[in-house]
Structures are given as C-alpha cells and as structure tokens.
Specification:
- By secondary structure, this protein is α+β, with helices and mostly antiparallel strands.
- The protein has 2 domains: about 60 residues, no CATH class; about 90 residues, Translation factors (Elongation Factor Tu (Ef-tu), domain 3).
- About 35% of the residues lie in helices and about 25% in strands.
- The protein contains 3 helices and 6 strands; from the N terminus they run H-H-E-E-E-E-E-H-E.
- The chain has a 6-stranded antiparallel beta sheet with strand order 4-3-6-1-2-5.
- Strand 1 and strand 2 form a beta hairpin.
- Helix 1 runs antiparallel to helix 2.
- It is elongated and about 60 Å long.
Length: about 170
Amino acid sequence: MTAALVVKIPYHRWQPVHIVTMVVFSLLTVHALLASKGLGATPAFAISAGIFAVVGTLSMAVRLVDKARGGAEYEVIATTRTAREVEISLSPAGPRTILPPTAGQFAFLTASPGGTRETHPFTLSSAAGGRELSFVIRALGDWTSRVQDGLAVGDRVRVDGPFGAFAPSRNVV
C-alpha cells in the first residue's frame, strides 16, 4: 500500500510534496544532463536523458499553465446523495467551458466544501460531449467527506480538464 492511499493524511499535507517533487525532478534532470557529459556517458544515455528531460519539462509546463488558468467556472445545479457518495451535476457559469469529455476521462475539480478549498481529480460521469458535467464523489477522505454535505445547488466550482484517453479510438476496426 502506498502512502497516498492512507486516507488519514489530509490532502493539504500532500500538496507540498507534489511541488517538491517538481523541483526535485528539475534538479535531478539538470544534474543528469550535466553529469552525463563529464562521465563520458554513451550517446544512447544522453539522448534518453534529453528526451526524458524535454517530456518531463513540457508536462510540468502544461500542468502549471492549466493550473494558472484555473479552469472553467461551473455552477452546481443538482446533488444526488446516497449512503457513501454524492453525484454533483454542473452547468457552465460563464462563457468558458472545458472541452467536451469522452468516456473514461477525468477532470480536476476545485471546490470549497466547508470552507476548505482543494483540487482533486475525479472521473467524469456525465454523458460524453454534453455541456453539463457530473462527478460521482465517494467519501474516502477528509475533503471528499466534506463534499457530501458541503456542496449545494448554486455553489461555484472550477473544472480543469478533461484529461486522459482511456477510451479506444473510434477509428479502430
């Protein structure tokens, strides 16, 4: 079991770890690239390290730009509760929306249930391609437990995504 699955550790304690990971990745990548020249590394290692550095840096840049944009604003239009989960239905609250999601994609939801603003990834459970979005959120931790009763119709949230391509291509024969 990884430490990320321990639900007794609040998410706000994990957030700095994610930021430190980005910094450590950057430092280790620069170190590997500089050290490979001095150690007489093979061309294959230098090319692999270079590709790794470019892909990792571009991934971080894309994520930071998305984070800085803050996603699109949505309004909670319905909540459907069960014993262990809540389905949150959202409608665009402004001119900006996320791209139409496809089956299996996820998005980052930023909300402030109970006054604690956090961002978490959730699988989109709404029909593919629609303007309205929905997420099913199970109470598995401190923040997701607050979502169960903390989000109400009319609340504003931010959605960033969609991400992932877990559905097979429609062109597959």
